[in-house]
UniProtKB/TrEMBL annotation:
One of its GO terms (molecular function) is hydrolase activity. Keywords: Hydrolase, Metal-binding, Nucleotide metabolism, Zinc. It comes from Corallincola platygyrae. This is Adenine deaminase. The record marks 219 as: Important for catalytic activity. It comes from the Bacteria. Binds 1 zinc ion per subunit.
Amino acid sequence: MDPVTLKLLPKAELHLHIEGTLEPELMLQLAAKNQVALPYADIDEVKAAYQFGSLQDFLDLYYQGMSVLQTAGDFYDLTWAYLERCREEGVVHSEIFFDPQGHTSRGIGVDIAIDGITRALAQAHSEWGLTACLIPCFLRHLSEEDALETWEELQPHLSHFTAVGLDSSELGHPPEKFERVFAKVREAGLKVVAHAGEEGPASYIWGALDLLKADRIDHGVRCLEDAELVERLKAEQIPLTVCPFSNVKLCVFENLQSSNVKSLMDAGLCVTLNSDDPAYFGGYLNQNVLETAAAQGLSDSEVRLLLANSIKASFLPDSEKQRHLAALSSSTD
Ligand SMILES: Nc1ncnc2[nH]cnc12
Ligand SMILES: [Zn+2]
């Protein structure tokens, strides 16, 4: 598919960490403004540091990078820059993760992050009709107790959230560690999403489904190691939010050619493509879609299926889904 056509097609992004949209330029600008020391002299040094051998390598820089975010205005600027990118790329709806514990652990209250992010979301909605959901995630490398405390801190803000997620270091931190806190999330009427089967085994995807009752699986690419799991994901059409550039940058796959996007689609799964942490992984949504389609030999109708899946798998109301799906199917290339 050509880039101009892709840009014009309605699509949703369902796996995007707002802290992972912090471009080096803004990172250095905020570091100078807020007098936060970073180990980089200039933008080239920041970019040169983005060579990751694993998820943990990346996370170490990601948590360091977010330390420049100090005020609600900083969160607003960060979010606004991403939303403008959505406008340019024809993303009509975005479901945005943020990491409350990545901020509270360094003395920045959840209210500061939520205030800045939601102001930008409201402005994009009023200026060009973009819709968004906000999804706080628990950091799985921290304790259950820390997640429970964070859940309490989020209580005054629940009306801003559609779902709660689980992210950070996967290996050694299986979903069962968070079964109790996600029971509270569901009792509050929120949806559940969880990173699983990115670096961790297929059993973590079972855990996310059966113990956390996840409505969607973030990544999930290792599901193909378990035929029974693939049957379950297919039968229930549980969406996978796959992030191809991320998987290559974090060495889950050697390159886009060896990614398993096409195999997941051929297995009948509900696959969506997403950018995860685009400032760190080298591209936003449309570049992920275009380069993955080329590398995996996806036809234009398969690309359209991925976009339709992104709308269907979103947490939009049915009427909004139908509106976007009708626009997608009526647009021809
Ligand atoms: N790809 C990823 N996996 C787990 N946690 C993350 N936090 C930000 N990006 C992440
Ligand atoms: Zn992610």
